[in-house]
Write a structure and sequence with these properties.
The radius of gyration is 55 Å and the shape is elongated. Helix 5 (144-164) runs antiparallel to helix 6. It has a domain at 106-267: Muramoyl-pentapeptide Carboxypeptidase, domain 2, CATH 3.30.1380. The strands form two sheets. Strands 1, 2, 5, 6, 7, 8, 9, 10, 11 and 12 form a ten-stranded mixed β-sheet that branches. By secondary structure, the chain is an alpha+beta fold. It contains nine helices and twelve strands.
Length: 338
């Protein structure tokens, strides 16, 4: 044994740095047969715990918890999470001021079936140049462009018409404005302009003296109704009234529907006024007319007339009856050919 150890020491196997390096590299069995010092159970190994870096001098001082509760934190939101800016008013909204109409803006409507619209207003009254207000009864829910057209029509055309008739315009009878429905209220029909808040149905004008001018009343002067018709057809793209269909016999439909080549529809028959006396009734008997005959006198007159007519027939000769009964001659037959 001593001899083997001496030989290994002589060769430098068990000594020197090479031997130490080989002992530190784990072999197939690791350090199973290494020369580590035995570790006792329950003993602790000293390790280096990482410590935080020292606080820089330019760092801000931490606020106390009480101060954080009192002052809410103002955290800057990213640009994509910032609240959207309110939409800018349209040119129509800027032009439709309170000097022209009382028409507050309302939120956009997005109903099923494509109904609704944007830039909507509730047209409550039209302000005339003399500051007099023409109320819409009830208020109409319309697009701003349609409300502006109604206001311009009343201010420019209808108010002077009422003034020419010796009164002041005070109201407009609104039969219908926004309603989510098809044409003429038929289920399944194409969406009406009423469903787009782009139409209004009007029935009459209200005057300050209490009178009412109905657009479809045939007792109203024909000149007045024709003036209203011409003013409507000049401003709106669709005008439907009596004669267009039986849905518009008692009101006038107005809208601003956009069509190809700015095509317009104006269908309103201004009927003539009805006669005061029905034509089928007999005219009244004038006072200077001769008195009518009694029924008995009328019967006697008819009998005398029949007797006078019967005498000439009895006095006719028999030859006449024979000639009538005789067959026609050859000359008469020839005349019949032509």
């Amino acid at each position: 044994m001593v001899t083997v150890a001496a030989l290994l020491l002589a060769q430098g196997v068990l000594a020197g740095p090479a031997y130490a390096a080989r002992r530190t590299v784990p072999g197939l069995f690791g350090d199973l047969f290494g020369n580590r010092s035995p570790r006792l159970r329950g003993s602790l190994r000293a390790t280096a715990v990482p410590l935080p870096r020292p606080r820089p001098a330019e760092a801000p001082t931490a606020a106390s918890p009480a101060a954080e509760k009192e002052a809410p934190a103002t955290v800057d939101r990213p640009a994509e999470q910032a609240a959207p800016a309110p939409p800018q008013p349209s040119a129509c909204r800027l032009a439709l001021t309170e000097e022209i109409a009382i028409a507050p803006s309302i939120p956009d409507i997005h109903d099923p079936g494509g109904c609704g619209g944007e830039d909507l207003v509730r047209l409550e009254a039209v302000v005339l140049p003399d500051k007099h207000r023409v109320k819409l009864q009830p208020a109409a829910t319309l697009r701003c462009t349609m409300a502006s057209a109604i206001a311009d029509w009343i201010r420019t055309d209808i108010a002077p018409l009422a003034q020419n008739n010796g009164s002041v315009l005070s109201g407009l009878d609104n039969f219908d404005s926004y309603e989510c429905r098809g044409f003429n209220g038929i289920p399944g029909a194409h969406l009406s302009e009423h469903g787009r808040a782009n139409a209004i149905d009007v029935r009459a004008l209200k005057l300050a003296d209490g009178q009412s001018i109905s657009f479809t009343d045939r007792t109203v002067a024909r000149e007045v109704r024709e003036s209203v018709l011409h003013s409507m057809c000049a401003r709106f793209t669709t005008v439907l009234g009596p004669g267009s269909d039986w849905y518009h016999e008692d009101h006038i439909h107005l809208d601003l529907m956009e069509r190809h080549n700015n095509y317009k529809i104006c269908q309103w028959n201004v009927w003539d006024p009805l006669p005061q006396v029905a034509p089928l009734l007999p005219a009244e008997r004038p006072d200077d007319a001769p008195p009518r005959k009694v029924a008995a006198d009328a019967k006697s007159d008819t009998k005398s007339d029949t007797k006078s007519d019967a005498k000439p027939d009895a006095a006719k000769p028999k030859t006449a009856s024979r000639e009538a009964a005789s067959p026609p001659t050859k000359k008469r037959r020839q005349n019949r050919r032509f």
